[in-house]
Design a protein that fits this description.
The protein is of the alpha/beta class. It has 19 helices and 17 strands.
Length: 553
């Protein structure tokens, strides 16, 4: 007999990335929101940091009619909040919280966290304090909302994402024990740090001690909050099997559920609109390439992209550059290739010389000075991409079959060069490559295939493992996604595999390209939130039942 799943009457979900577009968790929450809105309209409430002050947040619209009675009550408290709607599909309720007033109580808050949950805040630095005070404020807001608006009979879930909001989940268990708590780590802090510091992660995972590594890598406090939150919440989750294993080894806690990241393709343009946007994007990218390099690029040019956070090793940017360099000297390649590296760097603004050329709308036959970067950089001498390209003597010369261009800016439509949001750019690519070494899930390849762009990823990414699992074998570029086997030590093999895949794709005829694009889209539809929400329903049910047990002890 199948047990009836309990679904929450209210869900409070918090992340540093609510109405704050800084990384992949923004995509997770913003694409899932509409599915939750359909289930419990306006009883899914997102809580994020008020990073904007008096300035207008472009992702949020304040609305005084929402919870108006409670908001009149809030005026008499020390809570500083804005209530409105997150401007994403579904337009869910969002509460932005000004948390700065709690800094004066920081030491006493940290003392209670140690007493109640053994969270070590002594070694805090950087963004730890901001995260902690924000999380404390979130817990106080939810506590006030619960006691003002609810009868105490509702099933309520509080869902915290990443270590930054772990404090809030722990505080909920003290302030409102009736609320079920969930915590999702999208990547363990220790795992990300091991990878980022060039240490082998996977072959030695069984031998690493999370606490010892936290001491060695100077991140004891961040590790402590993540580990203790995982230990105490009603339901501990992560986003892939590969990260679940990481949690077990580094946090000493097995996850209760794996919640794979889905996607909402409602904003993917259809029909003629898709075709027009793709043509516009390709034209934009090739115009930038021409204006920078002085080379002409015909319709047969293959446009390749990689994107994500600027994590040089973890995201595989290093091996991507290496692969493009090897491709330059491959006699099998008969087409021109322009490869864009779209990662946010420390930009000093768009290049004026490039802006002038693009505004003129001409075709150029001479290159600009250093035709490899679209924006000026503050740290050009220390930039990893340009540094590796210098080492490999990659300068986008006239006779180079492969040109590599760094776009070191967030693509939200106002960067001064591309001036298109990322989703309007990615569909202009012919192929996307994400050869990650450390990637708990991997939204970028999922986004690419949703826009019918075949992609390359690895089996060290949760998404890559998932693709292989649904095929039942190693997926190839003909299937829409090429999954490369990657280990701690086969870097050169990965570079060769990327090169060979690009060559193979370049030799496809029109029908083969069309088939690969169709298969890519078909895979993406298997990862829609409508398919993946069932995992969340199981986790909500588990958390609510565990909360009931906790309160009945």
């Amino acid at each position: 007999m199948v047990r009836h799943r309990i679904f929450p009457d209210y869900i409070f979900e918090t992340s540093w990335e609510v109405c704050n577009k800084v990384g992949g968790i923004y995509t997770v929450l913003s694409t899932r929101a509409q599915s939750l809105q359909k289930l419990i309209n306006d009883r899914i409430i997102f809580l994020g940091p008020d990073c904007w002050g008096e300035n207008v947040c472009p992702f949020f619209q304040e609305d005084s009619s929402i919870f108006s009675d409670w908001m009149r009550h809030v005026v008499s408290t020390d809570l500083k909040i804005k209530v409105g709607r997150w401007l994403i599909p579904g337009k869910p309720v969002a509460i932005l919280i000004d948390y700065k007033s709690y800094f004066k109580d920081k030491n006493s808050i940290y003392g209670k966290l140690w007493e109640d949950f053994q969270v070590d805040s002594l070694h805090a630095y950087g963004d730890y304090d901001d995260s902690a005070m924000f999380s404390y404020a979130v817990a106080k807001v939810v506590e006030d909302f619960y006691h003002y608006n609810m009868k105490g009979t509702e099933n309520v879930v509080f869902h915290a994402n990443e270590w930054q909001t772990g404090f809030a989940a722990l505080m909920m268990e003290k302030l409102v024990p009736e609320i079920a708590t969930m915590f999702t780590t999208h990547a363990t802090g220790i795992g990300r740090s091991i990878s980022g510091n060039g240490k082998p992660l996977y072959d030695y995972l069984f031998a690493y001690n999370g606490d010892q590594m936290a001491y060695e890598l100077n991140m004891q406090s961040k590790h402590s909050i993540e580990k203790q939150t995982a230990k105490y919440v009603d339901c501990f989750t992560t986003v892939s099997d590969i990260t679940a294993n990481e949690c077990k080894e580094l946090l000493d806690k097995s996850v209760d559920y794996v919640l794979p990241n889905g996607f909402d393709n409602a904003f993917v343009p259809k029909g003629a609109a898709f075709t027009n946007k793709r043509k516009e994007a390709r034209k934009c990218l090739l115009n930038i390439a021409n204006a920078l390099t002085g080379c002409e690029f015909d319709d047969d040019t293959i446009v390749i992209g990689t994107s994500g956070r600027y994590e040089f090793r973890s995201k595989g940017i290093d091996v991507f550059i290496d692969a493009m360099n090897r491709l330059r000297f491959d006699d099998r390649l008969q087409k021109k290739v322009v490869a864009f590296i779209e990662v946010p760097g420390w930009t000093a603004g768009p290049r004026e010389d490039l802006c002038e050329r693009l505004a003129a709308g001409k075709i150029y036959d001479s290159a600009l000075r250093d035709p490899r970067c679209t924006h000026w950089l503050h740290n050009v001498e220390q930039d990893n991409v340009l540094g590796m390209m210098n080492y490999l003597d990659m300068h986008n010369r006239k006779d180079d079959k492969v040109k590599v261009i760094l776009v070191p800016s967030y693509l939200i439509g106002d960067d001064g060069i591309v001036n298109k949001p990322y989703y309007d750019v990615v569909l202009g690519h012919d192929l996307c490559v994400y050869p990650s070494y450390y990637e708990p899930w991997g939204y970028t390849p999922l986004e690419a295939i949703a826009f019918k762009v075949p992609c390359v990823t690895t089996d060290l990414a949760g998404f890559g493992l998932w693709v292989n699992s649904i095929k039942g074998d190693c997926s190839e570029i003909e299937d829409g996604v090429k999954v490369i086997h990657r280990t701690d030590y086969n870097y050169s093999d990965v570079a060769d595999a990327i090169r060979d895949t690009v060559v193979k794709f370049s030799l496809f005829d029109c029908d083969e390209v069309k088939s690969s694009r169709t298969n890519a889209e078909r895979i993406s539809k298997k990862a829609l939130w409508s398919k993946f929400m069932t995992y969340y329903m199981d986790a909500y049910d588990f958390a609510i039942r565990k909360c009931a047990e906790r309160n009945n002890k």
